[in-house]
């Protein structure tokens, strides 16, 4: 089956996720810049989550440029990824509402970890559809950034028990690692 519907559905779900996150931002009481100061943690957690959702959308888009067709397993793997991404607004809000306490920061990291694992599973399902010797599989190759990210997420979940702000720093570092889009598929398409 074609890939158009999975791309359109994914784009729609991700747009809704971002919309839900922005709706969590409350209008400050007051008209001066001082009224924004108490919202700085909320804004920072929103920006971090927005960047993460954007990273997944960007990499999903790049990867699907190389996809020729999909099967049922790919549809389920994609839904698995979208499920974990859909929890980002909840985790972002919970973390902010509780001043970046240990448990919400751990849960945020767990959701990031599961998003990474879900994206990896989606990649494996696409390799299965296209074949291990396909251009798609060769382009995907080994993904050191993904492996590093998963390791850092696990480390950050553990470190949240010591200091949640160390974990937030690690989440920020991982986001910075992924800010540059994955160009492997763009090169393949040329």
UniProtKB/TrEMBL annotation:
The chain crosses the membrane at residues 6-23, 35-55, 75-95, 107-127, 147-180. The keyword Electron transport does not apply. It is found in: Membrane. Keywords: Ion channel, Ion transport, Membrane, Potassium, Potassium channel, Potassium transport, Transmembrane, Transmembrane helix, Transport. It is a multi-pass membrane protein. InterPro entries: TMEM175-like. Pfam families: TMEM175. It catalyses: K(+)(in) = K(+)(out). The keyword Transmembrane applies. Belongs to the TMEM175 family. This is TMEM175 family protein. The lineage of its organism: Bacteria, Pseudomonadati, Pseudomonadota, Alphaproteobacteria, Hyphomicrobiales.
């Amino acid at each position: 089956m074609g890939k158009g519907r999975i791309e359109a559905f994914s784009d729609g779900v991700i747009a809704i996720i971002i919309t839900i996150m922005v709706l969590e931002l409350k209008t400050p009481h007051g008209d001066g810049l001082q009224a924004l100061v108490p919202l700085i943690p909320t804004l920072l957690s929103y920006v971090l989550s927005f960047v993460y959702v954007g990273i997944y959308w960007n990499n999903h888009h790049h990867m699907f440029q190389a996809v020729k067709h999909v099967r049922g397993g790919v549809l389920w793997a994609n839904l698995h990824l979208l499920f974990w991404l859909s929890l980002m607004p909840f985790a972002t809000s919970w973390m902010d509402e509780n001043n970046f306490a240990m448990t919400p920061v751990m849960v945020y990291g767990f959701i990031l970890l599961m998003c990474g694992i879900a994206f990896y599973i989606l990649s494996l399902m696409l390799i299965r559809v296209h074949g291990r010797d396909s251009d798609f599989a060769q382009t995907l190759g080994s993904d050191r950034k993904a492996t590093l990210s998963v390791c850092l997420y696990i480390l950050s979940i553990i470190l949240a028990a010591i200091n949640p702000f160390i974990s937030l720093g690690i989440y920020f570092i991982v986001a910075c690692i992924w800010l540059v889009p994955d160009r492997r598929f763009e090169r393949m398409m040329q």
